[in-house]
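Good morning,

Attaching, inline, the backbone tokens for the sequence recovery test we're adding to the shared suite. The designed sequence is right after.
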């Protein structure tokens, strides 16, 4: 009986129990069933493949916005700095600040522009803004003047994207106005191509003509930018005329193709693999409904695997009853609705499946592969969205 235990024995047993509990707690904190493996060696391979497409004199801006397309902006940016990228490109000021606070030194271009409230942060963290509004230019100039410094800026021109930027006919007058601000250095002129990934190059070529004419008009008012840039990943492969003096590849750095037609033109390696592990395997009878809404009912006795990944992790609910996963090198269909934290797969046709087995949501396993492009096809979107959707609660594991 416990009443007869010596106090010292009780104390030692308590210490052992507390120690074991602490160890289990530590393991629990560090264990993640669902992970995203990021291969930095593949990133390096893709960087070199893209770098070889441009002359040595053309500078390289690696786009790492949206947490490096879901791969982890800090780790990816450190690798890209090591590889020699000249610039890093982000979408917003907070993304730029995150990289500066992590110790990244390369010039960081804010591709989407900034708001007046962000001017001080831009100067404090030595970020380079894209500018296309006069009020922003005035605020930047005033803040730079107060600090007795000069800030580099890039001017955004809308040559046919229809998004942000100055129309070509308005750009020379805008640039001329900026010449009055001694604390602004017009370092670059940029635009963005809307159809560079399409096989018909006609509209992209028209955009390039508009961009070239705009640059010539800017020169007439006394500005010759050091950088003029328009080339995204697809243009880097399809349109050598788009190179300018700076290129801005994004999705191809991560091993995904903007269009299937580009695959024969450049070899890339997938950087991210998305994996989980089976939490439970259960045999259910015919006529058994699966998950919310009973959208799937077993037609015969079936073996189902419960996988701890759901739409809260970025595994889209649209994959319900249409997605597939890899288990033991075989494809298993997703059955029933994808839940916030769970996905069910039918493993009836796969022998010897057990709890703990690896599940590949995106990536390779025993000669089979599921790509971001394939997942995008199942849900009617593009690989960019699939990669960017992998949630932050999915632990990134870096290799290479």
């Amino acid at each position: 009986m416990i009443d007869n235990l010596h106090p010292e024995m009780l104390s030692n047993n308590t210490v052992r129990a507390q120690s074991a509990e602490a160890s289990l707690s530590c393991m629990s904190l560090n264990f993640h069933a669902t992970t995203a493996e990021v291969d930095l060696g593949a990133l390096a391979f893709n960087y070199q493949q893209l770098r070889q497409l441009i002359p040595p004199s053309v500078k390289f801006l690696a786009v790492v916005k949206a947490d490096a397309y879901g791969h982890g902006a800090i780790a990816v940016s450190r690798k890209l700095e090591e590889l020699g990228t000249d610039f890093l490109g982000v979408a917003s000021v907070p993304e730029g600040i995150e990289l500066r606070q992590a110790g990244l030194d390369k010039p960081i271009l804010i591709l989407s522009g900034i708001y007046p409230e962000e001017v001080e942060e831009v100067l404090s963290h030595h970020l380079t803004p894209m500018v296309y509004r006069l009020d922003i230019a005035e605020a930047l100039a005033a803040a730079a003047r107060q600090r007795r410094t000069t800030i580099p800026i890039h001017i955004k021109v809308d040559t046919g994207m229809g998004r942000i930027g100055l129309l070509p006919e308005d750009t020379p007058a805008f640039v001329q106005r900026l010449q009055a601000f001694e604390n602004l250095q017009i370092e670059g002129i940029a635009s963005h191509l809307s159809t560079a990934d399409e096989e018909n190059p006609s509209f992209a070529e028209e955009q390039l003509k508009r961009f070239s004419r705009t640059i010539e008009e800017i020169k007439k008012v006394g500005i010759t930018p050091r950088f003029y840039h328009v080339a995204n990943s697809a243009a880097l492969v399809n349109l050598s005329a788009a190179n300018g003096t700076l290129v801005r590849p994004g999705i191809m750095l991560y091993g995904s193709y903007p269009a299937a037609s580009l695959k024969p033109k450049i070899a890339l390696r997938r950087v991210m693999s998305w994996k989980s592990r089976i939490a439970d395997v259960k045999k259910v009878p015919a006529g058994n409904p699966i998950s919310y809404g009973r959208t799937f009912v077993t037609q015969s006795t079936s073996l189902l695997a419960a996988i701890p990944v759901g739409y809260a992790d970025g595994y889209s609910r649209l994959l319900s009853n249409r997605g597939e996963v890899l288990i033991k090198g075989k494809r298993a269909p997703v059955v029933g609705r994808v839940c916030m934290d769970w996905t069910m797969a039918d493993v009836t046709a796969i022998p010897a499946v057990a709890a703990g087995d690896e599940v590949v949501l995106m990536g390779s396993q025993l000669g089979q592969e599921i790509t971001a492009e394939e997942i995008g096809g199942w849900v009617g979107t593009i690989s960019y969205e699939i990669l960017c959707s992998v949630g932050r609660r999915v632990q990134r594991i870096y290799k290479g």
